[in-house]
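User: I'll paste a sequence; please echo it back and then give the predicted structure.

Assistant: Echoing your sequence first, then the prediction.
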Amino acid sequence: QLRFLIRSGVPIREALSSLSRRRRVSRLACPLLEELERGESLGDAMAAHPRLFPPAHAALIGAGEQGGQLPEMVDTILAGAEAMGEARRMLLVQALYPLLVIVAALVLMPLLIYSVTGRIVGRWPLHLVVLLLLAALSAAAVMLWRGPDNLRRRLERFLLALPGLGSMIPLSILGRALRLEGLLLSAGLSFETSLPLVRRSVGWKLWAGEIDRAAEEIRGGRSASASLGRLTGLPEEIAGRMEAAETSGRLDIALRDAGEEMERRFLHRLNVSFRVLPILLYLIAALAVLDYAFGVLGGGGGSLP
């Protein structure tokens, strides 16, 4: 909505004042409007509320204001967010129905059979294994984002060592990081200013530490392509392209293009994985249903008083 108003020539303050009266976006618009009324720029206003706006986006908006390219910078930010949001929605739709089927097979069906026959049928160890696996995945996700740093690093390295998943994670994390770094450099920020913003947006301790190392090496005189080319999981051909681009003075464009390419690779692999996942879930559900059927027909299971 802000993009539409800016494109229409509405001044920033008037646009935010209009948005602040709309219930769905007032939570975001009101803090920005207050900062603008104090004399701050839009980029500084966003930077003052890091819980609402990513620091890297605030930096991009600030650079767009200074260079007179605010509408273009807003378009760039939203294009990336919309593409990733659409990919997430598509994958969620693909996975939702199979997940509902397996929940019905493992949870609802045994309850229905018990309500009719008064007996528990099936091999409950199978159910416990599935439930424990889901609980372990949930615990791993919580520890990955909220756990102690040393435990998070161990978990990150374990995930990177897993077949299939370990090759997909760098495509997503590094793709987003490289694209953002390229955008920040194109907006006029230096490596000294942009890399800390990229570091905060990464989320993974492993790559956050490596980005800090790269920033120190660049300050020490090492080339940016050589420092960033050592990031764990970065494909060799992309590192080579970055080195060639730095020689020709087009590193910002190369970083942005490399990031977008890696994100496309990630989404492709994820889409392929989600095509296989429903088949596996349906097989598990089918096995559970057959197990219940044999239990009912064969009189297996135990009765509860």
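The beta strands are 119-120, 302-303. The chain is about 80% helix and 0% strand.
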